[in-house]
Amino acid sequence: MKLATRKLVEALSIAYCSKCARLKHFCDFTPQKSRRNGLNAICHSCAAEKSRIQREKNPETRLKWRSQRLEIERSQSRARHAKSPSIGRAATAEWRRKNPDAVSRYKKLWSARPETKALWRQWSAKRRAITSLATPSWADQELIELIYAEAMHRGMEVDHVIPLNGKTVCGLHVFTNMQLLTRSQNASKGNKFRSG
Fold this sequence. Notes:
Elements: H1 3-11, E1 14-17, E2 22-25, H2 44-57, H3 59-83, H4 85-98, H5 100-112, H6 114-134, H7 141-154, E3 157-160, E4 178-181, H8 183-189
Antiparallel strand pairs: 1-2, 3-4
């Protein structure tokens, strides 16, 4: 392109696409600092067509690139969380507080999944087996039923002081090994034994 023509083209805010051989407005090109006019040599539509052809020729390359990109994003997210995990927890708690309907909807969807039901049944069966193995023949079933009724009445949970299936020690499913805790207290205690 001659110098006079190039100056006229730049003054009109148009550029020449080397692929479709047409003059188009600057907004039809992506920026490219290395070129004289600061724009890519081909327009958006030609670049999109070129990309589509590349994807059709090499679909596995695209999938490989996407999986690499996803892994990079995951590792960056893990690194951010490792740096300050409380920020992520606080943001999640805030979102849950602001969106109770969405939380309820997600819980219903999650609990309706067959995999979830199967996991829940498996966990319940394991818990029943542990409880029955940890219940001695001399345990007073009436007192045990009474403490569970009291927990339901108060809106609390029954916790085993010495866990039934702890890492270091296993307790018995008897009245003297039970205490009432709020849900948050029970969750924070978990399956741990705190002596003293």
